[in-house]
Specification:
Pfam families: DLH. By secondary structure, this protein is α/β, with parallel strands linked by helices. The protein is 35% helix and 15% strand. The chain has a single domain, classed as Rossmann fold (3-Layer(aba) Sandwich), CATH 3.40.50.1820.
Length: 259
């Protein structure tokens, strides 16, 4: 898989100083990944049978990231959500902001779906959710995270019924053509035109139609590290995105139960 082509806003917008008291907790997985102990952030009601894997954006851990997945975990009755800390240091160095060559070189080593063993990490997180009673799974990411989510939903060894997320980055027609499950794309105002990707999905005639909504009033990254939800406009858009993801998840799960 070629390196992701991130938009400028991925690389030149620093994280905000948001504050959020996490509702969930970190958990070391029982299954090691490439011989190492790895940690996920777990949140949501343990009685839910629906598991969501979250893929953070390129900034890694950030309070708004936790807030986003905490709120998703309690939407529409609740889901069990697991967000792996894909980057071992949890965040990327500030030196990468506005330094695209350095960022891309770092991602090639630390953010490759297979070469960085992210696929193994995702599978270990799925098994952890299964141990807590989850029976069906979707995967949603933010920014770079959607690039990883689309690779995961296209991977035959994965159990995901859907993929997508807000302010997607690095998506291509080549990547979407490999997807056999419905997707949800929620771009921000600077993000690429994703309607051609939705046309590709429409031709697949899946049980559930893929979903697209552009948030014209908020910037790229508003649900993740670059989000500031003390801004009412960003908070309203984030709540709307969370509702759309929860509703889409329920629709996909219901369609597969009825099949």
């Amino acid at each position: 898989m070629a390196q992701p082509q991130l938009i400028d806003k991925c690389c030149n917008t620093p994280a905000t100083d948001a504050v959020w008291k996490s509702l969930g907790a970190d958990k070391v997985l029982a299954t090691q990944v490439h011989g190492e102990d790895r940690t996920v952030y777990r949140t949501g009601p343990k009685d839910s049978k629906i598991g969501i894997i979250g893929v953070h954006d390129i900034f890694g851990y950030h309070p708004t990231t936790h807030q986003f997945y905490d709120r998703l975990a309690t939407a529409h009755g609740g889901f069990q959500v697991s967000v792996p800390y894909f980057f071992k240091d949890r965040t990327i160095s500030e030196e990468f902001v506005s330094n695209r060559p350095a960022l891309m070189a770092w991602l090639a080593v630390n953010g490759s779906y297979k070469d960085s063993h992210l696929d193994e990490f995702i599978l270990a997180a799925v098994e952890d959710l299964k141990a807590d009673g989850c029976e069906v799974f979707v995967i949603y990411g933010q920014c770079w995270g959607t690039f990883i989510a689309m690779q995961a939903v296209s991977d035959e060894k994965m159990p995901f019924l859907a993929a997508g997320g807000p302010h997607p980055s690095a998506l291509s027609q080549e990547l979407i053509e490999k997807v056999s499950y419905p997707i949800i794309l929620l771009p921000a105002k600077e993000d690429m035109d994703m309607l051609p990707l939705m046309e590709i999905m429409k031709e697949k005639n899946l049980k559930v139609d893929s979903f697209h909504h552009r948030f014209e009033n908020v910037h790229h990254g508003w649900t993740g590290a670059r989000g500031d939800w003390t801004n009412p406009e960003q908070l309203e858009a984030a709540e709307q995105a969370i509702h759309m993801l929860a509703e889409f998840t329920e629709k996909v799960v219901k369609a597969n139960k009825d099949a």
